[in-house]
Structures are given as C-alpha cells and as structure tokens.
Amino acid sequence: MTQSNSSGAETAANGASLFTLPEPLVFRSGAELAGVQLAYETFGTLASDKSNAVLICHALTGDSHVATSTRDGQEKPGWWDEYVGPGKPVDTNRFFVICSNILGSCYGSTGPASLNPATGEPYGLDFPVVTITDMVRAQRELVRHFGITRLCAVLGGSLGGMQVLEWAARYPEMVAAAVPIATTTRHSAQAIAFNEVARQSVISDPNWKQGGYYGGPAPDLGLAVARMIGHITYLSDESMHVKFGRNLQNREHLSFNFETDFQVESYLHHQGRKFVQRFDANSFLYVTKAADYFDLELEKPESYAAQAFAASDARFLVISFTSDWLYPSYQSKGLVAHLQRTGRDVSFCDITEKWGHDAFLLPNNHFADILGGFFRHVR
To answer: Could you tell me the pTM of the whole model?
Structure first.
C-alpha cells in the first residue's frame, strides 16, 4: 500500500519514502522486473559535496527505520537506536545515514506480497527468487539516486553483514569503509538446515496454498513455528539459561500434559505470535533463501569477491560475538585472515558476550565503543 506525503512524494504505508528504480532490475537468476521499489529512510543531512553518506543494511526481518525520527508529531524509536543518532557511534550530526528495506521483504519494498501490475494481484511465487546480489544492486540504484558516488561506510549485522560484504566485493569503488557484524561469507550447512526446516513449516501449513493465500487465511501457524525455530538460533545456551533456566510459566507444578509448562516455551510462543502480525510468510521464504544462496567463494582466487577484496582500498572492521553459534566467530576470523592475506586494512573484534547472535541488536558499551572509535576516523 502506498500513499503520498505533503510534498507529493510517494511513501509506503509505514511512512518510509519510496524509490522506484529507473530501469528494470535484472535478477541474478536472469529474471527481469520493472517498477521495482525500495522503501527507505534517511537520517542527518547530506553534505553539499555528497561526501558524508553511510548506508546501514538491516537483518533478515528488519526494516528501514534504523533510528528514532518524528512522525505526525510523535517520536518513533528505531531498531538500532543505541548506535545510530546524534552523538551516537554512527553520529547523524556528521553522517547522512540511509537505510532501505531489502528487496523481497514486506515493509514497503517490492516483494511477493506486492501487487503485480500485470495481474492486479500479489506476486506470490511469481516473484523472482532474490539473492543478496539483487538486494545490493537495488540499493546501489538508490544511492546513485542521491548523487552519491562513494559511501563513507556500509555497515550491518547478520543478513545486513552479508549485504555489506557484497557491497565491498561488487562495488569496491563505492565503499570507503565496510563493517560486517555477526555475519558470514557463506551460509554453512547447519544454517541452511535450520532455514529449510523453518521454510517447510510454512510450506506445510494448509493455508499456504502454494503461496496464494492472499485475500484469505494466512499460514500463521507455520510461520509462527518457523519464527520459533529461527529465534532459537539467535540466542545462546547461556542466554537461555540466564533468562529462563527451567522455570515454570504461571504454574507451580508440571502439568503432565502437553500444555506450556516452561517459561522458555511461553517465550517462543510469544515470539511466534508477534511475528505473524508483522511479517509476510512468502517474504520469509524469499529472504531465508537469499541467505542460503550467499557464498563469496573466497577460497577461489578467480571469484569476483576474492579479486575485488584484493584490489579494494576500503578499511574493514569485522565484529563477531563469542556466543554466536549461528555465525560463529571462526567464520569472521576466516574473513579476516583472507583480508590480511590480500594486504587489506582490517581490524577485528571478537566481543565476549553471552547473548548469542542477537547481541549486535542489544545495548553493549564495548560494542558501542568499538563502533564509535572506528567511525571517528571514517571520512
């Protein structure tokens, strides 16, 4: 759903601005789609010479609202408010920050829930399979729309970190600094396995109807279970022990049936219920598949990424978390070793933290100091 703001510019239903790509987008699969739109938001002021732009890439089910802004006279918090804003590590008094919703998602950018102009109905599975490459190609068009030829930095965590690496490999001339956080250069078999189980949960829901559920009951049960599966991978054994242990939920004794006995069970059910209220099931299939397809093939000297990293002049800051078992620290260390072998300017921080993969989204003074210290030298 789109609307126009007071200036006549097109906006998404969530208030983000909409950018329409000027040319049809050719996907990595060979498919071609015209009229592709990205929902985006900006924070701070673009310098007259357009030299202070920073692109932030969000994670799997995130959106463009990375930092607090005022809408309709009310402040709306952003998903990374700890780290982006005036006087914060990514200081919007200095930088012009851009964040766009990824292609294939459901927060304003074109995806399977968008209307197909040829039919007047949602694309559903007629939407092309999306890769990280396609997402970044679309983002590049948005950046060029602002007249920006080089970004001060590109940063993001998880799936956002994959986009950062794709930016640095695909368009090295446009990236002065790259900050991939809690991410990987290629999805492991374990990560693919978790995503496939989650996708099968959606696909097995009778309401999915081969992706044609729009206008009727959505596959909420399947999507909720998929989110429960994924959410486990975002935590860690220690964090679940600290948060829940074996504590019972609203009872003093075991039920001896299949009701929800434990707090951790109740928590996962809650996460599943929340998720189906905000995310599209088909989009979930598409964005998880994009993550699975991601592979920079750095072990191959002839790969585009290996060659680009060897020639890039970008500064890299690679950050991982010791308790992240979705994208363990050894995967970031492998990236760092490759960058060092090619003589790149790379810093690496493996932060000791118990909260698992999602640690990059949570308040953390050490993380803030590392980001802030790096960005003080970003130009």
So the answer is: 0.96
